[in-house]
Design brief:
17 strands; alpha+beta; 20 helices; Heat Shock Protein 90; 3 domains
């Protein structure tokens, strides 16, 4: 079969497909081409960004480590200057000027405190040596190797060559026993006179820093196992010893050293003799610009994340291609989309969401069903609103009826008590009781409101107690503890006074005196927590709770049932009433009510 036959056969095959198959085939080609192009572009962008970020992160790590070492070495230099400013060192310089060696031991002793302070301020300092023409001065805790004089050492020769202080590379300490590897700071001792005259003093201070501590310091934040770090000079030679790996071979190669420019920091890629690429980052120290910290990492490990991105991109592309095979089957969703949308709306209606509405720009049969569905929802919503309004009116009527059913015996007894006291000539009590009763009536009316501020309800309780304490003299005392912030909270009226009345009539029934009633109101989160308790004869909480849940015609516990029923009508389940006995075997009744301060919130919850 030649090429012409193949090209003529393919259109015929394509034309033989059904419409669904042609759409399927077209979508597969387009989606496959788009995904391959998108994946390739995304991989290229991601690879460049990851490489840039990784190189920057690697450089930042080396810079940070170099800064840490630089600051630590600066601090040691500062410690040397502090040593030279000490009184003991100044006296030593005078003795050197006067060539007076008779005070050697006195100066050695006075310098011990200075040495200890310098070593205390920086734990990396291994030893200190002050070389002078009249003798060497050092901490007595160190053992001096007298066989090696500073004035015959390589350090002295290097100082004479440089004519200034310097840091030396890592070496074995020649001036003290122990063969400790150290990095040394050598500085010339300065006095006030020598500084003014600009004359050499021939006094030298040597600070030996432990090489292990320097390495631990610059390696503290360099924990990447795929990267090696070195403390070297501009020729690639170690400042301190290092365990070189395979990249040791090129660290001192001329072509490698040439790329370590005089810039304070930098990075470059280096290819070794095995044609393996490495990322090299370096950062020079300020205290000695010939020293630097160098990081070396193989490029393949540096960009290892790209392999994962390449695999992920390939898998995602293949996955989307597979998904594209089934896209044409979902074209039917376009035709059935209005019906599916109507089905979702019906499910939301099942979840009591009556605000949903079907919308469509089409006029087909499914849309007509949806519009009729909307009209049905409007009728249902109107019916529910009507039922809700009737129930609200019914609940208000029940609340008013229950409020009006509070036992009127209190008023009868009060009037009888007022009459008796007027006959006995106790006019002051009569006046107070009549005024308190008048105030109670006024508070009970409360302008026709069903809910009043807690402050008004407490005033109602106070007026009631004023009457009862005149009626039952010396029978009880009353304590009230209310948080001031709660006085504005709205509560159903005449909700606390029946609880006080319950304590007086039932709790103190057989008592002549010694009764105590306590009323507290405090905030409990979002709740108003009201507690009324007494030290009377108590009650049986289980029987009262049964009477609340299963009302009877008995008058026993009538006031509590009335309150319980009213709370349910006002708050529904958003309230709680507990009846228990306290530690004195008296009654304790606790109410938890929502903290509402506006009538809109209150009626919003009861609606």
């Amino acid at each position: 079969m030649n090429k012409h036959a193949i090209w003529s056969w393919m259109p015929r095959l394509f034309h033989s497909f059904s419409l669904k198959q042609r759409i399927w085939f077209t979508f597969v080609i387009l989606i496959t081409a788009g995904l391959v192009a998108t994946g390739s572009i995304a991989y290229l962008i991601a690879s460049k960004e990851i490489q840039r970020n990784t190189m920057q992160s690697s450089q930042d790590t080396v810079n940070q480590s170099a800064q840490i070492v630089n600051e630590r070495l600066k601090n040691i230099g500062t410690a040397v200057r502090a040593l030279m400013f000490s009184d003991a060192f100044k006296q030593l310089m005078k003795d050197v000027q006067n060539k007076d060696s008779s005070s050697y031991f006195k100066s050695l002793t006075s310098l011990q405190y200075v040495f200890s302070q310098v070593k205390f301020n920086d734990s990396m300092i291994e030893s200190i040596l002050i070389a002078t023409p009249i003798g060497d001065f050092y901490p007595t805790s160190s053992v001096r190797n007298n066989a090696n004089s500073f004035y015959q050492s390589d350090m002295f020769k290097q100082f004479q060559l440089l004519k200034r202080g310097f840091w030396s590379k890592g070496h074995v300490d020649p001036f003290f026993t122990g063969n400790q590897r150290v990095i040394s700071l050598v500085a010339e001792g300065v006095s006030e006179d020598s500084y003014i005259r600009n004359e050499p003093t021939n006094v030298y201070v040597v600070i030996n820093v432990k090489e292990d501590d320097i390495r631990d310091l610059f390696m503290e934040n360099l924990t990447d196992p795929n990267k090696h770090y070195y403390f070297v000079d501009s020729q690639g030679e170690d400042i301190n010893y290092a365990d070189r790996t395979q990249d040791r071979a090129f660290m001192q190669r001329p072509d490698f050293v040439e790329q370590l420019t005089d810039d304070s920091k930098g990075s470059f890629f280096y290819r070794d003799s095995d044609r393996k690429d490495y990322l090299v980052n370096y950062a020079r120290l300020d205290v000695k610009d010939d020293w630097m910290i160098v990081g070396v990492q193989a490029k393949d490990k540096l960009l290892a994340k790209l392999n994962g991105i390449k695999q992920a991109t390939t898998y995602v592309t293949i996955g989307f291609i597979v998904v594209s095979l089934f896209i044409t089957n979902n074209l039917t969703l376009l035709l059935l989309k209005p019906l599916f949308r109507l089905q979702k709306l019906m499910k939301r209606v099942e979840e009591n969401d009556l605000e949903v509405r079907f919308e469509s720009v089409y006029k087909d049969e499914v849309s007509q069903v949806g519009f009729r569905f909307n009209r049905m929802l409007d009728e249902i919503k109107q019916l529910i609103a009507d039922v809700t309004n009737r129930e609200r009116d019914k609940r208000k009527a029940e609340i008013k009826a229950l409020t009006a059913q509070m036992d009127p015996h209190f008023f009868y007894n009060t009037l009888n008590t007022i009459y008796c006291k007027s006959v006995l000539g106790e006019n002051d009590d009569v006046n107070e009781m009549i005024l308190a009763l008048s105030n109670m009536f006024q508070l009970s009316l409360s302008g026709g409101r069903d809910v009043i501020p807690l402050a008004d309800e407490l005033d109602h309780v106070r007026q009631y107690l004023a009457i009862q304490q005149r009626s039952y003299e010396n029978l009880f005392v009353f304590q009230m503890n209310v948080e001031p912030d709660l006085l504005a909270c709205l509560v159903p009226k005449i909700i606390i006074q029946p609880l006080i009345e319950n304590s007086i009539l039932h709790g103190f029934k057989d008592m002549k005196s010694g009764g105590e009633i306590g009323l507290t109101a405090r905030a409990d989160g979002d709740w108003l927590h009201i507690t009324v308790e007494d030290n009377g004869h108590g009650l049986v909480p289980e029987l009262l709770r049964q009477s609340l849940l299963h009302p009877t015609t008995s008058k026993h516990g009538y006031a509590l049932r009335n309150i319980y029923t009213r709370l349910q009508l006002y708050y529904g389940t958003e309230q709680r009433m507990e009846i228990t006995t306290n530690e004195w075997d008296g009654a304790r009744i606790e109410l938890w009510l929502p903290r509402y301060e506006k009538e809109e919130d209150f009626h919003g919850s009861t609606s």
